Amino acid sequence: xxxxxxxxxxxxxxxxxxxxxxxxxxxxxxxxxxxxxxxxxxxxxxxxxxxxxxxxxxxxxxxxxxxxxxxxxxxxxxxxxxxxxxxxxxxxxxxxxxxxxxxxxxxxxxxxxxxxxxxxxxxxxxxxxxxxxxxxxxxxxxxxxxxxxxxxxxxxxxxxxxxxxxxxxxxxxxxxxxxxxxxxxxxxxxxxxxxxxxxxxxxxxxxxxxxxxxxxxxxxxxxxxxxxxxxxxxxxxxxxxxxxxxxxxxxxxxxxxxxxxxxxxxxxxxxxxxxxxxxxxxxxxxxxxxxxxxxxxxxxxxxxxxxxxxxxxxxxxxxxxxxxxxxxxxxxxxxxxxxxxxxxxxxxxxxxxxxxxxxxxxxxxxxxxxxxxxxxxxxxxxxxxxxxxxxxxxxxxxxxxxxxxxx
Length: 407
Known about the structure:
mainly alpha
């Protein structure tokens, strides 16, 4: 049996065990619920808060159209990431493995699971998304307890943290929960890979120690649990040592064979990866961004805001805005006209694509961490346009990165 099938088999077995554990716990409370609701919880919902799903009498607010579109956008974006990983794998297997894992994460945790959450809440069942904007976390405590995979958090708090806290205290219990998480990830990652034992546990042990340090007087003095310092600390601690969680052995023994087997399947083989065509699509999308830039001035009432500034600053803004438009027009023209050259793998082509990949990656980061457009997303069309732009901003750096890494 392929190692990637072993991975999914272990993951499903652990998932089934956790579901059974939470079901047994809610039965002990003698909660009343129907068989249909129970079947939905066990088979069609990844969350682990059985009491809320099965026995909550208060119906949750229904998801908005904005949330529905966002959930499906992330699902489709995850498929696109996996598709790009398949195109990159023959040339740069290790980066392709990471890109494929990101695609799987978006398809499942951020995408399909969010779609299921929307569907259950639409039906009146309390099923909150298990991923809740992790990029906006301002502390490790916020990231791990309220934003990242809340299904495991619900389980860990009830069956590990709560029993341990009166015995060993809050901080040791917190570190212990992280170590338990590390052991679970050993089963899903190290065992199928046949190597890298201890690295996932080391990753989560480091998370626990960092979370404890965040609570200390020194950590509070440096502002590690709030504001931009807390956000930077959270990103560095969670993303920096990710190579421990997913060591090279796991990438090469599990993820890359999975990419090969999936892309060799009959249905996937119908999709031909044509990098020049993908680049031409990117060029056309630049034109869409220029149109969106023109429309944005009306959406945010740019002229009224600029009217309060001195004439020189108004002129400076419009000059810069115009030059940004010229840059987009140049990127578009160059990508459409020279798509074959950019996809050839030459030194200059790779340099240009590398620059564009970095450029659009930084724009994507700015959109996630800097801009707050919620006050302007007041209509369905604006919300749809916002999600469409996010898809574009995710597509551009991926395609240009694939071209930059091609040889």
